[in-house]
Amino acid sequence: MGNTCFMNAILQSLRSLVEEFRKTLCSLWQGSQTAFSPDALFYVIWKIMPSFRNGTSTIVTSVFGGVLQNEVYCLICGTESRKFDPFLDLSLDIPSQFRIKTTKDQEPRPTCTLNDCLRSFTDLEELDETELYMCHKCKKRQKSTKKFWIQKLPTVLCLHLKRFHWTAFLRNKIDTYVEFPMCGLDMKSYLLELCNSPQPENSLPEKCLYDLAAVVVHHGSGIGSGHYTAYGLHEGRWYHFNDSTVTLVSEEAVLKAKAYILFYTERSDQESPAKL
């Protein structure tokens, strides 16, 4: 096979996976009313991908993986509990004060910004009666506070804005516009290490700064319907991807988008925003 041996090895490895996937699709189209469980497909993936079995880091975790520190403080005895949680994206609430629609007679409300959403995510929160913390010192559920810090930032920061709101009876789309920066998203205020040891502004590490690479937009009124499009940066130009249609667009058009998911890339010491 010469220089194609690597390709051959990969194709041979994937062959059984493709065959099992074909069987799965055939089973789904047989018309049986019995629920189908794709166990065989799962076990083939388990067999040919060791990282799937033992949690070995993959390219996904190395690119998108960060770490959160979750601090819970018991308001009765003062015990503090810390837990580290890996993440591939941050799901951010749009603060409730920005969701209220104004009438023509009312003063326009301030624009919600991405930093408003990040601050809401990391602000100190007092847990309500339905979320009482099990304090190991008190040996009972107690009132407590919770706070998130970012312990480790990823190379690519994926920010998901929670635009779908569920209640007991219905689900709504939050159509609030969220202003986001094209360049220089500053994450130092949310990083545990820098917040605990403040540094002069001019010594800000480049790895706390992120530049926009892509935006995903949901069009429609609900999660069960609608359409998704994306804006992407390529060689300094922005493009809009709508199924098979690709259009060159301006930065202004991107910044007006009601973002659903934002992808930011870490700025290296050698990079400037214009080179991204």
TrEMBL record:
It catalyses: Thiol-dependent hydrolysis of ester, thioester, amide, peptide and isopeptide bonds formed by the C-terminal Gly of ubiquitin (a 76-residue protein attached to proteins as an intracellular targeting signal). The keyword Plastid does not apply. The keyword Hydrolase applies. PROSITE patterns: USP_2, USP_3. Its EC number is 3.4.19.12. It comes from the Eukaryota. GO terms for molecular function: cysteine-type deubiquitinase activity. Keywords: Hydrolase. InterPro entries: Papain-like_cys_pep_sf (IPR038765), Peptidase_C19_UCH (IPR001394), Ub_carboxyl-term_hydrolase (IPR050185), USP (IPR028889), USP_CS (IPR018200). Residues 1-267 form the USP domain. It is an enzyme of class 3 (hydrolase). It holds the Pfam family UCH. One of its GO terms (biological process) is protein deubiquitination. This is ubiquitinyl hydrolase 1.
